[in-house]
């Protein structure tokens, strides 16, 4: 069960379990993939949320953003235009899947209720909750509930149930779901984010712009393909703009800048929204993390027991990391393993940034080897010409718990194939597609809807 070539390009080189998957396809319809965010204080966002009376008056209006079939950047862009406010006045705790029906919390700074009532779109809906004193941040998010329908499975319900149960049991016995960054971090239909990020980190800014502007997508129209070919061959931004489709928003933003200031590729990148500039660098960090974690699995190093030089981080009552990690020195192994079993601590790897310290021991050797192969150093992630896209790095758990897992069958379709819906909860910054790839083991992630 070899992961596809496309997954390997994302650093996903291995499955956690060797158990056969069930196949099938997700995202046949947008509502087949539902994501609903929960905050640490217990506040939950639902795709069925409705407005209630909002009283008081403070600086920030907490709302639920419900979007369907669009990415978070596009939703926020549309929202800022409709409300006629700067994007800087809109805060989100995290990004949600584009090809999905999602509900998440946002805060709007200095926005009145009657302004929110203007938002009337088939793809986004705003439900005001109450006024609060501070903007939402990633640290306020507990995690997400998922309800995902898998269609067209060429197995009986009994076979499906048995395989999924075996996979879930195996994941739990290994210490949890391996915490790879998921496919949407890179783009399944157009896996370009981490490639552009690599060019940025290496200060190859022209290559970064050209890659972003000309990389083909599996959904590109013939018009888009011709436009991208035109710029790739001529580098004539002004002429290319006459061909570029209007929906290629960020490509056009950079081309419009280059049409005025030819060869200023740093300036073109700086025209992108700050969130997007940071995402591109973060995507490259995510690729490197996936490579580090894949190699750990390929060497059969454990997810729930430290090797000397591994980082260990304490977990709070919600199972989320708290405080700074410590490096395991090889002593008191039994005590550390007990703490991990009881959910009080967990293993972590560095997400490499300019302030990062690599792991020690075997894991540290893995990390250094991959960085050498990539030709980058931690300090390269401070990017002077694009300083606000720089990243200091952080630490990320190697495995997380998939909680409240459940499945329900929809019987057989007319062609004799099985459909089911899986429901589960994952902590923030973890990806449902990573659990799905273990369950489904898709031969072709594009056809499988990833």
Fold and architecture overview:
Strands 1, 2, 3, 4, 5, 6, 13 and 14 form an eight-stranded mixed β-sheet that branches. Strands 9-8-10-11 form a four-stranded antiparallel β-sheet. Helix 6 (205-214) packs across helix 9. The protein is α+β, with helices and mostly antiparallel strands and 450 residues long. The protein contains 14 helices and 14 strands. It has helices at residues 5-8, 72-83, 113-116, 157-173, 193-201, 205-214, 222-234, 237-241, 249-260, 265-270, 274-298, 333-341, 361-374, 432-440, and strands spanning 33-39, 60-68, 90-92, 101-109, 124-132, 141-153, 177-178, 311-315, 321-327, 345-351, 394-397, 399-400, 403-412, 418-427. 33% of the residues lie in helices and 22% in strands. It starts with a helix and ends in a 10-residue tail after the last helix. A hairpin with a 5-residue loop joins strand 8 (311-315) and strand 9 (321-327). The model has no long low-confidence stretch (mean pLDDT 94). The longest helix has 25 residues, at 274-298.
In helices, the fraction of residues equals 25-40%
* Rg of Cα set: 22 Å
Overall spatial form: globular
Strand content: 15-25%
* Element pattern in H and E: HEEHEEHEEHEHHHHHHHEEHEHEEEEH
Mean pLDDT: 94
Structural class: alpha+beta
Total number of helical segments? 14
**Number of β-strand runs:** 14
Largest sheet: 8 strands, mixed
Uncertain segments are: none
| CA(first)-CA(last) distance | 17 Å
Q: What characteristics describe this protein?
A:
450 residues; alpha+beta; 14 strands
């Amino acid at each position: 069960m070899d992961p596809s070539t496309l997954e390997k390009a994302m650093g996903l080189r291995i499955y956690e379990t060797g158990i056969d998957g069930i196949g099938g396809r997700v995202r046949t319809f947008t509502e087949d993939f539902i994501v609903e965010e929960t905050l640490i204080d217990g506040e939950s966002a639902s795709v069925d949320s409705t407005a209630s009376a909002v009283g008081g008056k403070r600086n920030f209006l907490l709302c639920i953003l419900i979007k369907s079939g669009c990415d978070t950047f596009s939703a926020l862009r549309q929202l800022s235009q409709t409300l006629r406010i700067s994007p800087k006045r809109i805060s989100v705790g995290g990004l949600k899947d584009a090809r999905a029906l999602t509900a998440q919390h946002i805060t709007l700074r200095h926005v009145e209720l009657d302004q929110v009532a203007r938002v009337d779109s088939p793809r986004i809906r705003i439900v005001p909750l109450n006024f609060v004193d501070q903007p939402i941040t990633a640290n306020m998010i507990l995690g997400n509930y998922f309800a995902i329908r898998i269609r067209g499975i060429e197995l009986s319900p009994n076979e499906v149930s048995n395989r999924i149960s075996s996979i879930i049991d195996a994941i739990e016995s290994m210490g949890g779901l391996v915490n790879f960054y998921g496919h949407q971090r890179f783009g399944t239909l157009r896996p370009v984010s981490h490639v552009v990020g690599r060019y940025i980190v290496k200060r190859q800014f022209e290559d970064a712009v050209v890659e972003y502007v000309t990389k083909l997508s599996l959904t590109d129209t013939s018009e888009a393909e011709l436009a991208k070919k035109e710029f790739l061959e001529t580098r004539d931004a002004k002429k290319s703009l006459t061909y570029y489709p209007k929906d290629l928003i960020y490509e056009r933003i950079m081309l419009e800048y280059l049409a005025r200031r030819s060869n200023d590729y740093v300036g073109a990148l700086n025209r992108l929204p700050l969130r997007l500039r940071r995402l591109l660098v973060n995507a490259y960090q995510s690729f490197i993390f996936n490579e580090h974690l894949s190699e750990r699995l390929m060497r059969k190093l454990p997810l729930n027991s430290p090797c000397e030089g591994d980082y260990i981080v304490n977990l709070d009552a919600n199972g989320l990391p708290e405080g700074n990690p410590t490096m395991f020195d090889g002593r008191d192994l039994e005590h550390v393993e007990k703490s991990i079993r009881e959910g009080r601590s967990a293993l972590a790897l560095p997400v490499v940034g300019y302030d990062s310290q690599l792991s020690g021991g075997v894991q540290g050797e893995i990390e250094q080897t991959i960085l050498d192969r990539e030709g980058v150093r931690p300090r390269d992630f401070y990017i002077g010409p694009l300083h606000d896209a720089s990243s200091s790095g952080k630490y990320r758990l190697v495995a997380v718990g998939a909680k409240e897992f459940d499945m329900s069958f929809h019987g057989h379709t007319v062609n004799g194939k099985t459909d089911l819906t899986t429901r589960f909860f994952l902590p923030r910054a973890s990806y449902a597609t990573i659990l799905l790839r273990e369950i489904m083991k898709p031969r072709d992630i594009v056809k499988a809807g990833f």
